[in-house]
Specification:
The chain is an alpha+beta fold. The protein is built from 14 helices and 19 strands. A hairpin with a 2-residue loop joins strand 13 and strand 14. The chain is elongated. It catalyses: L-glutamyl-tRNA(Gln) + L-glutamine + ATP + H2O = L-glutaminyl-tRNA(Gln) + L-glutamate + ADP + phosphate + H(+).
């Protein structure tokens, strides 16, 4: 970098800081007017195309237009006023604490603890860095729980209440709604303890969900929703609810036709049930059970009385039962895909964008250590910006690949929808390649527009 370009960059960065601008405003208001004499100022700086390209690369600010250049030149001219300040006889500032004596010490290197000793305190390390411990619940399970909660509670047309204590929440919801139907309860609790939850046959659910047999009993979690309705409205709602729940499963699946409804089963107590099944090559798997019960009494309680238009009415309940583990394992099996790509077998996970463990990954292609360091800095900056905008991002620090290698293979295997590729040209023109896992197509995006573009990609999903 030339001296002139470095000075322009420094002044440019200073003028972007509110604190520096405030300092310059004080100079304008309090200093001698002669400092504003244009004849005493340096010649107005002009910005050429090479300087603009350099500033865009280093600051990630898009200045490639007449208005941006004019604003930048005006900012530099404004900053030039500081050259008029008379600093003759002014000692360099060492500390802002002018009223206190600053104690200096000899600048000697003292190594109290080695790198190996420091890293030994971490349970998990990656190269020379600490790795934060993973969450108790993985990313996919966390995303699945969130989407179930959004569908059942947040986006429901019926007033839903979330709690772990069925009886207490039922009483609160009933009083809150003034004994008026409909309303519902949403719960999440361990399956092995479900027998204590009255009125719900969790043993049947535990046996029906075949994916659950791969998990320990203590790890089995049930996601349950119970909606209380007038008896006359319960059957039409039950049929509508079946279609809505099947649509929910299809929404997140790369193979929507996999999900279907079984025939309705009716027992001698007018208890109707239906299952949502996923079709696989090895057989059908039950992923959710829906049923309608002709009464809404809880095991140890008398049947609650509800009212409609000042009349006492009977009520029914429509129940949806999902195992979180079955939901998780089904998502893994559903997303797994093998296909041909450029004559080679391609194995990857086609996770929905909202369910993927990460939404964006970053890869680097560098031919020299110097370029590698610059790309690392840029990748870290982009990672922080994406995460600050709630875009889960995976960047394996200090890991690069050759430009010719298909560096995205490992990220397709992780099911990450998009990969950002940085190379040496990125440092020159600020352009990165954004590759889609599903289409394998790449598109060019300027680094200054990456955040807004990625947010737009995920906005409607």
């Amino acid at each position: 970098m030339s001296a002139s370009a470095g000075s322009v960059l420094s002044l440019f960065e200073l003028t972007l800081s509110q604190g520096i601008l405030y300092y310059f405003n004080i100079i304008n208001d309090t200093c001698n007017e002669s400092w504003k004499n244009r004849s005493k100022l340096p010649e107005r700086t002009t910005i050429d195309a090479d300087t603009i390209a350099l500033l865009e690369r280093l600051s990630l600010v898009d200045c490639a237009n007449k208005l941006g250049i004019a604003t930048l030149e005006a900012a530099i001219e404004f900053a030039d006023q500081i050259h008029q300040v008379d600093t003759v006889g002014v000692e360099p500032l060492i500390t802002v604490l002018e009223d206190f004596h600053l104690i200096l010490r000899e600048d000697q290197v003292v190594q109290d603890c080695t790198k190996v000793e420091t890293l030994s305190n971490a349970s998990i390390t990656e190269e020379d860095y600490f790795v934060a411990p993973p969450e108790k619940q993985g990313f996919i399970r966390k995303n699945l729980r969130r989407e179930w909660f959004n569908n059942i509670v947040i986006n429901s047309e019926i007033c839903m209440f979330l709690d772990e204590d069925l009886s207490a929440t039922f009483s609160f919801a009933n009083n809150f709604c003034d004994n008026t139907l409909p309303f519902g309860l949403a719960q999440e609790f361990p399956l092995y303890d479900m027998n204590q939850q009255a009125g719900i046959n969790y043993n049947v659910l535990n046996e029906a969900l075949e994916f659950d047999r791969f998990f320990l009993p203590k790890d089995k979690i049930c996601l349950n929703s119970t909606i209380f309705l007038p008896a006359n409205d319960s059957l039409p709602f039950f049929h509508k609810w079946q279609k809505q729940r099947r649509m929910w499963w299809r929404k997140f699946s790369p193979n929507p036709g996999r999900y279907s409804l079984t025939d309705i089963k009716i027992d001698n107590k007018s208890f109707q049930s239906v299952d949502i099944v996923a079709k696989y090559s090895w057989g059908n798997q039950i992923v959710e059970r829906l049923y309608i019960s002709p009464n809404c009494d809880n095991a140890d309680e008398v049947q609650h009385q509800f009212k409609k238009h000042n009349k006492t009415i009977e009520a029914c309940k429509v129940v949806s039962e999902v195992s979180l583990n079955s939901l998780f394992l089904n998502t893994i099996c559903d997303a797994y895909e093998e296909s041909e790509y450029k004559g080679n077998s391609r194995t990857f996970f086609r996770f929905h964008r909202k369910l993927a463990p990460y939404r964006i990954s970053l890869t680097l292609a560098a031919s020299s250590p110097e370029t590698k360091d610059e790309l690392n800095d840029l990748a870290l900056y982009l990672t922080k910006q994406l995460r600050a905008n709630n875009v889960s991002t995976l960047y394996l620090f200090n890991r690069t690949c050759s430009a010719s290698k298909d560096s995205w293979v490992q990220f397709d295997e992780l099911g990450i929808p998009y990969n950002v590729a940085l190379d040496e040209n990125t440092l020159k023109n600020g352009v990165i390649f954004l590759r889609s896992r599903d289409t394998t197509l790449k598109e060019e995006v300027h680094v200054s527009e990456l955040i807004s573009y990625v947010n737009q990609l995920f906005k409607n999903y």
